[in-house]
Amino acid sequence: MDAERESPAKNRTTVERPSDRELVVTRTFNGPARLVFEAWTTPELLQQWWAPKSFGVSFMSCEVDVRTGGTYRFVFAHPSSNQPMEFFGRYIEVTPPSRLVWTNDEGGEGGALTTVTFEDRGAETLVVMRDRYPSKEALDDAIASGSTSGFSETFEQLDDLLAALVSRG
């Protein structure tokens, strides 16, 4: 996949497929790792940036028990659907503020294992999100469904949230 482009003044999100089963998304955020990690693990903050606004989805609920062995469940509404969309899984590893690993169980056997690392670089944090799918077909299906296409927009929303959090101190 080609890297998604941003305006030159903004950080850039790159999306790569290094193997048949892996998708890697990378971006540097303005803010220390502890704050970026908090934005990934606090329900009130997650709801402000996780879903791309252009997709037209809104959070109905966001439940996270961010600890090794804990679970998460995100429920979204979309105007074109009578049924809510649910995303859920388990946290396999939680190492604040440097690493999160979780399952994506809504896909059944086809769900990815997501690993996110937060590398503190002073006032910035390098985030690398790696989705490992059980098969080439599972990743192909995820890409075809559009579920992997909103990373730049989602991460721009996280940039905006972090700017507000950093300015508050």
Walkthrough of the structure:
This protein has 4 helices and 8 strands, in the order ββααββββββαα. The chain is an alpha+beta fold and 169 residues long. The protein has a single domain, classed as 2-Layer Sandwich (Alpha-D-Glucose-1,6-Bisphosphate, Chain A, domain 4). It starts with 13 loop residues before the first strand and ends with a helix. The N terminus is likely disordered.
Poorly predicted runs are 1-9
Q: Roughly what is the average pLDDT, rounded to an integer?
A: 90
According to CATH, what is the class?
Answer: Alpha Beta
Count of helical stretches = 4
Which class of secondary structure composition applies to the elements?
alpha+beta
The assembly state of the depicted protein chains is single chain
Count of the separate structural domains: 1
- Estimated radius of gyration: 15 Å
Q: Determine the CATH superfamily.
A: START domain
Secondary structure layout plus pairing:
Elements: E1 14-19, E2 22-30, H1 33-41, H2 43-49, E3 58-64, E4 71-77, E5 85-95, E6 99-103, E7 113-121, E8 124-132, H3 136-145, H4 151-168
Antiparallel strand pairs: 1-2, 2-8, 3-4, 4-5, 5-6, 6-7, 7-8
Task: Provide tags for this entry.
169 residues, alpha+beta, Alpha-D-Glucose-1,6-Bisphosphate, Chain A, domain 4, eight-stranded antiparallel sheet, 4 helices, 8 strands, disordered N terminus
Structure in a nutshell:
The chain is of the alpha+beta class and 169 residues long. The chain contains 4 helices and 8 strands, in the order E-E-H-H-E-E-E-E-E-E-H-H. It has one domain: START domain (Alpha-D-Glucose-1,6-Bisphosphate, Chain A, domain 4).
